[in-house]
Amino acid sequence: MKLMWAFLPVSLVACAPGNVAGSDCTYPELPASDCSPWVPPAAVGRTWELSFSEEFEGNGYAATKLTPCFDWNYGGCTGSFNQGREYYAASQIRVSGGAAHLVAEPTSPPIASGACQNGSCTYLSGLLSTARPRADNGSTYLYKFTYGYVEARLKLIGTQGFFTAFWMLPTDTTYTYRTEIDILEHLGHDPATMFMTYHYNDRGTSFAVNSGVGNNGACPVQDYTTEFHRFAIDWQADHVAWYIDGIKCAQFNGNASTIENGPMQIILDVMVDNTWQRSWNKGLLDSTLTRQLDVDYIRVFQQR
After folding, report:
1. CA 140, CA 274: separation in Å to the nearest integer?
2. Both ends of the chain: CA-CA distance in Å?
3. Alpha carbon distance 86, 125 (integer Å)
4. Where exactly are the structural domains of the chain?
5. Is the domain 53-299 a CATH 2.40.50.140 member?
6. Which of 44, 73, 106, 278 has the fewest CB atoms within 10 Å, counting from its CB?
């Protein structure tokens, strides 16, 4: 998702064969009932370790791990990234039933903001990120990392006008991001096309998994909005590879000149009626609708 600037005691988990390379794939930090972790084979002499996990098992999320605002929060949270209708607010993250629900719903009166479509934010929506809680008080990034396998289990929104973005940016306090990894971008009107892209060379060059709509690289083209699915990226020094439900969709191969080698942050959010959607004549049809993105977990595994 190229940004358009408007302003600056748990039991061990014994996984089924094939989930994780090797015979021992136990992660004591994860829920005992969960056997979903899947990671690609580790490099020779290395093993995967869980380095970040938010499971949404209680009635809230850990504020030490995630913030409901983006990195440029100076106290008012965050307006739309791409001239959509949404303004992000902590009230739109609701946790229940073992999942976080990022709720996009109409708000009245609208919130005045140059970030939103026509200067008016008519929706409140949900965002979760590992960014700094505030950009003006010296707080540090809640979680930043270099290289790893990042996965979220999501139930997407299958309604025109709603947009899910699961992505990563460098932890750059000047906001001049040289790279961007779009793990998933999903336009609500199309339940089957999962857009996956890597932007590099100061985000002037892109590698796209998808060649048009109805194409997910080597991953199935099917309805991904009716139940939970796992969306992931494997970011290493020599490649970036996309996965859906453990299937590799595509891989970009590179080196230090093309692949990000500094720490990054994770962002997951719901947009409403953004520039991309309107340019395709797939904008919001009913401005009274409320929809939610369901998030079972967000995890990062790293090789040690």
Report:
1. 30
2. 30
3. 6
4. 53-299
5. no
6. 44
